[in-house]
Amino acid sequence: MSKIWQARFFTTVNHLRNLPDTTVPEIAFAGRSNAGKSTAINILCNQKGLAFASKTPGRTQHINFFSVGGAHVAMHRHDPVNMDEVRCLIADLPGYGYAEVSGDAKLHWQRLLGDYVQQREQLAALVLMMDVRRPFTDLDVQMLEWFAPTGKPIHCILTKADKLTRNESVNVLRQTQARLDSYVDEEGEGFPFTVQLFSALKRIGIEEATAKIEELAGLNVERPAPAAAADAASDEAADSRNAGDDTADDKPA
Ligand SMILES: Nc1nc2c(ncn2[C@@H]2O[C@H](COP(=O)(O)OP(=O)(O)OP(=O)(O)O)[C@@H](O)[C@H]2O)c(=O)[nH]1
Ligand SMILES: [Mg+2]
């Protein structure tokens, strides 16, 4: 059983000022609208309705956070998690590139996304989800180039691999790795960018993605004894969780 199977809904955020006041590492899932982010989060966390997955593109319009750890087997789903036991947060970012969203809303999302990935210190790594049939759209490249200067890892997941033959998808995998390897910093050093194939439908790449996320979130490392400071942090996080937002219809049930 993977540690991320314990994931639970934590909070939903529509403005950077409402980001949770937590110190644990965050792993954010970014990608074009409809790339399959929410579906992948549900599969990786082994829970059907955790992240909202939809046939309507642009469904996830806020940053939804899920917590891993601090929820015990016998607990009711709505019981508060034990904040000092939370190990990491998973963020489902709003999909970008959805044409029918109005200009203002689009700008709002893009600013929210750009600022979050560039400025959020707790963000440990980005999982960039791209449809295997059309990787590296302009906004994917924008996302990658916003995040690259942080020096933190990006793990690309090529989704919907079931839509191509095995040969075709392996070709895209190779081309994607080559393109990621072509990024170098001012000293000519490469970036910690990796890529894999994935299909929620055919259950391809689930173990590989799980292992990668656990590694990036530091879940394989034994956790040091909680410091007194963690208690204070957890109280604040509980406050921000209860602060509410105008997002009722986007919250997973
Ligand atoms: N064939 C196939 N379809 C998939 C796969 N994963 C997701 N889908 C479908 O793709 C559509 C979009 O999936 P979502 O998970 O809602 O996509 P998202 O990236 O969260 O989209 P936004 O919330 O709009 O950003 C849904 O109809 C899914 O059923 C996959 O592995 N294979
Ligand atoms: Mg979604």
- Distance between termini? 24 Å
How many structural domains does the protein architecture include? 1
Q: What would CATH call the homologous superfamily? A: P-loop containing nucleotide triphosphate hydrolases
The name of the CATH architecture is 3-Layer(aba) Sandwich
Structure keywords:
253 residues, alpha/beta, Rossmann fold, 7 strands, 30% helix, 17% strand, binds guanosine-5'-triphosphate, binds magnesium ion, GTP-bd_ribosome_bio_YsxC, nucleotide-binding, metal-binding
Describe what this molecule looks like in 3D.
The protein has 253 residues and is of the alpha/beta class. The model is unreliable at 243-253 (pLDDT under 50). The chain is built from six helices and seven strands, in the order E-E-H-E-E-H-E-H-E-H-E-H-H. Residues 37-38, 59-60, 92, 95 line the site of magnesium ion.
Topology:
Blueprint: E1 8-13, E2 26-31, H1 37-44, E3 63-68, E4 88-92, H2 103-119, E5 123-131, H3 138-147, E6 154-159, H4 166-181, E7 193-197, H5 206-216, H6 228-242
Parallel strand pairs: 2-4, 2-5, 5-6, 6-7
Antiparallel strand pairs: 1-3, 3-4
The structure holds guanosine-5'-triphosphate and magnesium ion.
Guanosine-5'-triphosphate (GTP) is lined by residues 31, 33-39, 53-55, 57-60, 95, 159-160, 162-163, 199-201.
Family: Belongs to the TRAFAC class TrmE-Era-EngA-EngB-Septin-like GTPase superfamily. EngB GTPase family.
Biased composition (Basic and acidic residues): 238-253
Cofactor: Mg(2+)
